[in-house]
Structures are given as C-alpha cells and as structure tokens.
Specification:
With about 625 residues, the protein is α+β, with helices and mostly antiparallel strands. The protein folds into four domains: about 15-75; about 90-210, Pdz3 Domain (Roll); about 225-550, 2-enoyl-CoA Hydratase, Chain A, domain 1 (Alpha-Beta Complex), CATH 3.90.226; about 555-624, Immunoglobulins (Immunoglobulin-like). It contains 17 helices and 28 strands. It has a six-stranded mixed beta sheet with strand order 12-13-14-17-18-21, with helices on both faces. Helix 1 (about 15-30) packs antiparallel against helix 3, helix 5 crosses helix 6 and helix 10 runs parallel beside helix 11 (about 350-355).
Length: about 625
C-alpha cells in the first residue's frame, strides 16, 4: 500500500487560473444541464468560479481543490467533474470493509457485509468485527446521521442518489474526484446482534493505486470513437474496481484467465462450436466470457426456477460482444422468466445498453434522443466533427429562435437498435437502485418506455444521470490545435462534462432523465437476508412477479421450402419476408406451417410475430 501522505510541488497561481478558466469555458458553453441545474438546485457555478479567481491569494493547495470539488459537486451531476492532478488522480483512500443498509420495518440499519482478509486480528477483541456486525456510531456520530452528512458532500442528482453515494463514500474515496478524508482514522461502534454488547474498533485510512489492467474504457481520460458513446459515473466505476481488489481478488484472477484465452472466448460469443472449457478448467456454461461484466445463475424459489443475470457495468468497448454474450448466457438459463440485476451499475457504453433492449421484446425499439446545449462552442464542435454534424442545423438556427437546446437525435440510425430482434421470450424483471446511473438510467428508461417487463427497485428512483459524458481529452481531440478553447491542464488535472442530455420516448416522450431518474413499478425495501444472503428476499419478490403471468413462446424451423412454427399461448402469427408483409394466420393446437415463395439470392429475413388477443407478445427471426 502506498503511504497516505504525499509530498508534491504545489500548483502555481498561474496554473490555478488555467484550471479555473477551463472550468468556466466548459460549464458556460458546453455543459448541457446548466439551465436545469440553476433552476432545480439554485446553483451559480460561474459566479463561484469568478469569486474563487478573486480569492486565490492565500488559499492552500487543499483549500483550492476543496473549492473546485465543491463547485462541481453542487451541480448535483456525477457526469460533470473536476479531476484532481497528480498524485491524487490514480489513488483511492479506503477502509478495509464495506457497510450496506437494510430495513427492519421502517427502521434503516447498517451492517458490515465484507471485510478485507487480514484486516482484523482474529486473536484480539476485534475478532467480533466481521460480516453481520451492526454499525451504531461513526466517530461518535449516530451512523444514520453520519451517512446523511456524508451524502451532502456528494453530487447525486436526487436525495436517494446522494444518500446511496454518501454510504459508498463512507469507506471508499477515489482521490481523483475527492480529496483524502480529513481524519487520519475512524472509530466505529458496533454490535454483533441487535441486543448485543456495544463494542469499539478503530481503522486507519489506507491508500492504494488502482491497476488499469483488464478494465474497460478509462472514464477519466478516454478518447476515440468508443469514448464518444460513454455515459458513466466515474466515481462509481472506481469504487467498483476498488471493492473487487479488496474483497474479490479471485474474480480478478478469473478475468486474467479469460483474457489470456480471449480468442476462445470470442469464438464462443460469436457462436462458433468450440469446447466450453479452457485448459484452466473454467466452464463457460457457468462463467461469462466477460466476467468483469456479467455473472449469472439459475435461481430456485417456491415460485419455480428462473434465470438471473447481473450486469455489473456497461463499460465495454464493443457493443456487439456485449449483446452477443448476453444472448449466449440467456440461452443457458430457464425460459420461464429472467431477472436482470443492474443495481450499482454506474453505466458505460450507451449503445451497449440501448441495443440490448431489442433482445428482450418483440416491440420495435425507439432509442432515446440526445440534445446539445446551443452555443457557439457546441456549434463549432458539430462543424468540425462529421459524427455529430446532424446536430449542426438546429444549433445554428438557435441564433434566430433563441432555443436553449438542439434538436434531438439518437446516437445511431434506428435500424441498428433493431437489427437482432427478440432472443429471450420469457417474462423479465429488472432490478434497480439509486446507484444506477447514466447508461443504466438510459437502459432502464428504455425498458420501461417499451413495456418490456416490471421494474423492481430497492430505491424510490435511479441515480438520474441522463447524459452522454465527454472528458477534456476527448474535447481536445475534437477541436485540436493552439487556438482550441480546450487546453491541457497542469499536472494532468482534467474535467468531465455532460455534453448531450437524453430525453425519453413513448408515453414519456420528451421527459428528461437527468435529476428525475426512473421510478420503479414496484419497490422492495432491502432486508438483512438480502445484504448477507445473496438477495434472498429480493429474488423471492422478483420471482413472484415472474410467476404471475403466462409465458409466450414462438419458434420456427425450415423444412425444405416450408416453415414449421411452434407457439405457446399464441393465437395468431403474422409473417414478414424481407420487411414486407407475407401472410397472417390463426394458430390452432400450437403448431402451424406454411410454404415459402421462390426467394431471391440470400440472405433473406423471415420474421414471425405472435399475438394473443390482438396484442403482440413474442417474435422470432429466421435467416434464409
């Protein structure tokens, strides 16, 4: 572990002025949420930057960084950050345990759920501090109040999100985005049971350097095509990686093993017939070829057997690989129903999230629209970069109309969000919480807007991050040269900014995701069994929902020039051939067949859509 105390050359007055000026340019001319944040949170970041500029004399290094962090935190936007310079940038301050909240009735309690091996001496009185210990006080402050106070320093877009972020920050502080804790150590009071004796333990804050190996796109400094498509809470991503290093080093070893045999993994994802076991013994019927992203299993409850897929992050380079691996995993799980768990997922590649939706529904996916702030600088970006040129006319027109935002467009042509079609036909429940952010917000919004299934939340709403985020490095790449308004910062300091906000579709068309988030269809208050016993009560709740409705299915196979279709709970099938209506017929006894006309040279696409009582329930595709 690196020492917590670092000695380094301090920023000069000129360097601090550079940082302040760059922040002003970004917030005033690029930051898409500025009008919204001024209205919803009564903040004035530009004025605060001007005041900081006037008051630089006499400010210590720490006081300067504290004020910069505070200005950005009060925007209540986890996308828009001041990234501290070296040596803070690649370090994380941590305590060697994790606490999570749960409810007993209406009372919120806090329990230790993970402890780093070796952090507690098993031969001392501290041996009682282990998984299941109930936290009562933190540095003499009642734990609930301590979390509330910490939450006020966090940038969550709503109360639920701030509280969730505040709880995570009790034990992990990525120093790129927040300075080290003021205290050298913490003193914790805890009980081994609700009626047990109160005990006390002390932990020193420690510091680690995070390894970038095997991770996805770096949310702090990414450039290139993949970086343009990002929507991610950088702090959440850093915390996730820290927890893995502290509490699940075996998971890192699995990732290294899979990465070492990536060719085999790629063949499995592409559907090529290969052995599903690596030389190391990993079985891809149990382990994902993208173990950093997916975990999965079959769950059994009194309601039946169902599939469970945890999507830990959308931070991937390839949306194709992401979607193909999800399809492969889903095919290994029961068809009776699927739980998709995105709790704690801070986002990633927006395209990966939105393209996944089609796999779960027969409905045509209408992706969310993205909008720029209208300004001379966003106009210049669109003029110099062909990949965003479609936004240019409406931004230019704003000179006459005075409109605040540009016209909205999806990131890709709509056809790209519908090029695979439905692959999982069973009912689906989506699990969310207040740590869901950015791409995960967008995915959840699309899931709800297309009525794919029930959204079950352990919080009253998601983290409400509705934007595409670009870093300063990417902005410099898009407008390079000595005359660029985007400058290189001293000592590798940097910024991230929400550059395009998203609006919803369907019945909620035009509604912002930012600040509002997504409200679940049902709420499940986390129980002690959930945090200590693999979400036992939460999964019971989800499977109860899945068991309520009928399961629809539709499959087809080609026998010479005839299509044989097999259906369950379907009364009518409509067939389209190469996107043209072919025929429609009623289904009796679950099986039907029909003859194909002479086909042009392939490939040809046959799509069957199954209806029940006039409502589209399921679809399948055949490539002929």
């Amino acid at each position: 572990m690196a020492s917590r105390k670092q000695t380094t050359k301090t920023l000069t007055t000129e360097e601090r002025l550079q940082i302040i000026e760059q922040a002003r340019v970004l917030i005033e001319q690029v930051y898409v949420h500025l009008p919204l944040k001024r209205a919803m949170h009564a903040v004035e970041p530009i004025q605060r930057l001007k005041l900081l500029k006037q008051r630089l004399a006499g400010l210590s290094e720490r006081a300067f960084h504290n004020e910069m962090i505070s200005i950005f935190a009060h925007l209540r936007d986890l996308h828009t950050n001041y990234i501290l310079p070296e040596p803070f940038r690649d370090r994380v301050a941590f305590l060697p345990f994790r606490i999570q909240e749960f409810f007993e009735g209406k009372e919120r309690q806090y329990v230790v759920t993970q402890v780093k091996p070796g952090a507690v001496n098993p031969n001392s009185a501290d041996k009682y501090f282990k998984q299941g210990a109930l936290i009562t006080h933190w540095n003499g402050i009642p734990i609930d109040r301590a979390v509330e106070m910490n939450a006020e320093r966090e940038a969550g877009s709503n109360l639920e999100a701030r509280r969730a972020r505040g709880l995570e920050a009790m034990t992990i502080r990525p120093m790129a985005l927040s300075l080290p804790p003021d205290e050298e150590w913490v003193v914790i009071n805890y009980k081994t049971s609700a009626r047990g004796r109160t005990r006390e333990i002390r932990f020193d804050w420690e510091v680690m350097v995070l390894d970038q190996t095997l991770e996805g796109i770096d949310p702090l400094s990414a450039t290139g095509e993949a970086a343009r498509l990002m929507g991610i809470d950088a702090k959440s991503d850093l915390e996730r990686r820290t927890r893995k290093k502290l509490f699940a080093p075996e998971a890192i070893e699995v990732e290294k093993t899979v990465a070492a045999d990536r060719d085999t993994a790629q063949k499995i994802m592409s559907g090529v017939e290969v052995a599903l076991k690596l030389a190391s013994g990993l079985d891809f019927k149990r382990v994902s070829t993208m173990p950093r992203v997916f975990t999965f299993r079959k769950v059994k409850t009194k309601h039946g057997s169902f599939g469970y897929i945890r999507i830990q992050t959308f931070n991937v380079f390839s949306d194709d690989d992401f979607v193909n691996e999800f399809i492969r995993i889903a095919a290994l799980l029961p068809k009776t129903g699927l739980i998709i768990d995105v709790r704690g997922n801070g986002g990633g590649n927006i395209i990966a999230g939105e393209r996944l939706l089609q796999v779960l529904t027969p409905q045509r996916i209408d992706p969310e629209r993205l909008h720029f702030l209208n300004s001379s600088l966003t106009l210049s970006l669109c003029e110099h970069n062909p990949f965003i040129e479609q936004w240019k006319p409406s931004i230019a027109q704003a000179v006459e109309t005075g409109a605040t935002y540009s016209q909205g467009f999806p990131l890709l042509p709509v056809e790209r969000y519908n090029d695979i079609g439905q692959k999982y036909q069973g009912p689906v429940v989506l699990l969310i919480d207040a740590l869901c952010y950015s791409t995960t917000d967008i995915f959840t919004a699309g899931f709800q807007d297309h009525d794919i299934g029930v959204v079950l939340g352990t919080s009253a709403n998601t983290g409400a991050g509705g934007a595409n985020v670009w870093g300063l490095d990417l902005l410099q790449e898009c407008l390079p040269g000595p005359d660029s308004p985007f400058k290189t910062m001293p000592r590798n300091a940097s910024f991230r900014v929400a550059i395009r906000h998203t609006t919803r579709v369907g019945q909620r068309s035009g509604v912002l995701v930012e600040d509002l988030g997504i409200t679940p269809d049902e709420i499940h208050r986390t129980t002690k069994k959930d945090v200590l016993k693999k979400n036992r009560d939460l999964i019971e709740h989800a499977t109860k929902i899945l068991a309520k409705g009928p399961v629809y299915s539709l499959s087809a196979r080609l026998v010479t020039n005839r299509v044989v279709a097999t259906a369950k709970n379907i009364t009518r099938i409509d067939a389209t051939l190469n996107d043209r209506p072919h025929q429609s017929f009623d289904v009796e006894r679950g099986t039907t067949n029909f003859e194909l006309p002479p086909l042009p040279l392939g490939p040809n696409l046959l799509e069957l859509r199954g209806f029940n009582k006039g409502k589209l329930k399921v679809s399948t595709r055949l490539i002929l």
